[in-house]
Structures are given as structure tokens and as C-alpha cells.
Amino acid sequence: MKERSPLLPDRHPQQDLFVCDIVDAVPKGDMSSMEHPVFSLSTKPDTRPRRYQLGDNWIQVSPSPLGLATVHDRDILIYCISQCMAALNEGRKISKTMRFKAYDLLVATNRQTSGRGYELLKDSLRRLQGTQIETNLRQGGREYFKVFGLIDSAEIVRETRDGRMLDIEITISDWVFDAIEHNHVLTLNRRYFFLRKPLERRLYELARKHCGQQPEWRIGIEKLREKCGSGSSEKEFRRLVGKIIEDDERHDHMPDYRFSLNGETLFVHPKREPQVIEKSATAMRLRPETFEKARALAPGWDIYEVEREWREWITETPRNPDAAFLGFCRKWAEIRGPARR
């Protein structure tokens, strides 16, 4: 019997037929929830409150009666963040409240578009809104001492007679929006949405956040269990991680990073081929008149230094590089104010 792939099937291979911007909106996640165990690994309702502390920083996550938001629920936040970052790269304004087609979200995150898929999406929205967070973690330069949900609200604007959502409106929390405005986000490999196991997704997030393009990152298995938010015993957790490593050795299904265990330490190394999309971001030429407009938007600043910062910041080639750079200059001036003489 043929062994089942550890990856989910590609549910939407004909993406070019859909009229939406899902291909242009590169998946991105906010750094704080990539680093800390905000989301549950469980596929069943997880009503276990949790608190994670590292030095003076702490985060407490409390579930609603429906349970904590899960790693798979996080897909919705990734989609919202990705749409906002794509808009910023093109010089467009963004808002905490956004409206889009539910179908586009399901396709972009490799979810089912059947009636069942829409019901699962509703459940995800309920858990995201119901999960409450209290933390003093800095996100985008702010320090929080309040309780908030991962999203403020969600509304189905139009719904078909058979219960399928057409338009959906989501208001993300200040915490998530601050991460977007301050570029406290990282690009994710699109294959993230094909990872079947919640723990696989969590390991990838941690590797992306802590290893990045470094040659190596290592972490003790007990510390890793804590950062994953796993409720398994240390022995069982080690077995689960070992199974993922074993599957990756056979199928090479984990994106971007290779994992190995040596004693009680997990080692993470980037796989050989870097993402092509990150290479192409520095190969753009801007029109001379763009620099003149940029100087007007960010008066007093060395516009070529701002350009260098922009090229290091972006991780995908925007459709309109000139408009994207001008949008960056506008935001640069809003955040930093006039240049100091």
C-alpha cells in the first residue's frame, strides 16, 4: 500500500483561474505569536489556560468555552496580515477592518471550499474572537497591560441560502495591527498551508523566527516543548518531534528548514535553496522622478538610505515598485517624523 504523504493535498491547483490577489499576497505572520505559544496544537477543544514567561516578559492566554484558537485558526490572521502587507508594499492605506471574499481566504490557505469548509471557518472566527490574551510583550514598540482578543470582531456580510459565506468582514486586534504597521512580521513559505500536523507548523514557525537565514539554531527539547505550548509529556513530545524528523527525511516535506535531534537538543539548519522571491526583491530599478517624490514625502532624510532600508525590508517584488517605495517613504515619515539636523 502506498504511504500517505505527510502533506495535505493541493486543494486548489488551478489558482490562475481565480480573480483575486491571493498569489501576490505573500504569506506573512507576526513575530510575537510565532515566537510564543499563543495557539493550541490540539485538534479537539482546548480549554486549558496557559502562561508563558521568559525573563521579565510574559504572556497569558485564556480560552473561551469553545477552546483556544488553534494553529490552523492562525491561517485567518496570516491571510489578513498578508493582505495588509501587500497593500503597504503598493502604497495603499490599510485599516484594522478589512472585507474580502471568504472563498479567496479558503483558497489562499489551502482549505476546503465545501459547505463543511465554511462551517469550519465560522468556528475558527469564534475561537479567534473568544481567545483572550494578557501580556506585557512589546509588539511594534508598544507594551501592553490589557486583555484583548486575537480579532475584535468578525461579520458575515453576505451569506448564501445554503450557508456559504460570500463576503466576510474582520476587525483585527490592535496587537496584530501594530505588528503590521511596524513591520514586525516575517514571510512564510506557501507550503506552510500544506503541513498536516499542528506541531509541524509550530516547528516551522519557530525555525523561521529563530533560525531565519542563520546556519544553525539549537534549543533544548524541554524548552521547545514549552515554546510550542504542548500538553504532552516530555517523552511523548520527543517522540512526536522525532516522527516529524523521520517523515521529513523520507519525504522532504518540511519547508525551508531541516531538523535533527542529538540527545536532548533539537538542531535546525536552513535547507539548501533559499526562496527565489527573496532574491528578486533587490533587482528593481526605480524611476528618477520617484526619488523626487520620495524627498517630498520624507523631507530631510537621505532618500538613498531610506531606499536601502526599503530594499532590505521587502521580501517580495511588488507589482509597482515605484508606488511601493513611495508608500514606504510615507510611512517612514509618519513613524519617524522629520529628520534630525
Textual characterization of the structure:
The longest helix has 18 residues, at 234-251. This protein has three domains: 25-188, no CATH class; 200-270, Ribosomal Protein S8, Chain: A, domain 1; 276-336, no CATH class. Strand 2 (50-54) and strand 3 form a beta hairpin. The strands form five sheets. Strands 2-3-5-8 form a four-stranded antiparallel beta sheet. A three-stranded antiparallel beta sheet has the order 4-10-9. It is globular, with a radius of gyration of 21 Å. The termini are far apart. It has helices spanning 31-35, 74-89, 102-108, 115-130, 174-181, 198-210, 221-228, 234-251, 276-280, 288-297, 303-313, 321-336; strands at residues 28-30, 50-54, 57-62, 97-101, 132-135, 138-139, 142-143, 147-149, 151-159, 165-172, 185-187, 217-220, 257-262, 265-270. It is built from twelve helices and 14 strands. By secondary structure, it is α+β, with helices and mostly antiparallel strands. Helices cover 39% and strands 19% of the residues.
Q: Which characteristics define this entry?
A:
341 residues, alpha+beta, Ribosomal Protein S8, Chain: A, domain 1, 3 domains, four-stranded antiparallel sheet, three-stranded antiparallel sheet, globular
How are the SSEs ordered, and which strands pair?
Layout (H helix, E strand, L loop, with lengths): L27 E3 H5 L14 E5 L2 E6 L11 H16 L7 E5 H7 L6 H16 L1 E4 L2 E2 L2 E2 L3 E3 L1 E9 L5 E8 L1 H8 L3 E3 L10 H13 L6 E4 H8 L5 H18 L5 E6 L2 E6 L5 H5 L7 H10 L5 H11 L7 H16 L5
Task: Give a summary of the structure in a few sentences.
The chain is of the alpha+beta class and 341 residues long. It has helices spanning 31-35, 74-89, 102-108, 115-130, 174-181, 198-210, 221-228, 234-251, 276-280, 288-297, 303-313, 321-336; strands at residues 28-30, 50-54, 57-62, 97-101, 132-135, 138-139, 142-143, 147-149, 151-159, 165-172, 185-187, 217-220, 257-262, 265-270. It folds into three domains: 25-188, no CATH class; 200-270, Ribosomal Protein S8, Chain: A, domain 1; 276-336, no CATH class.
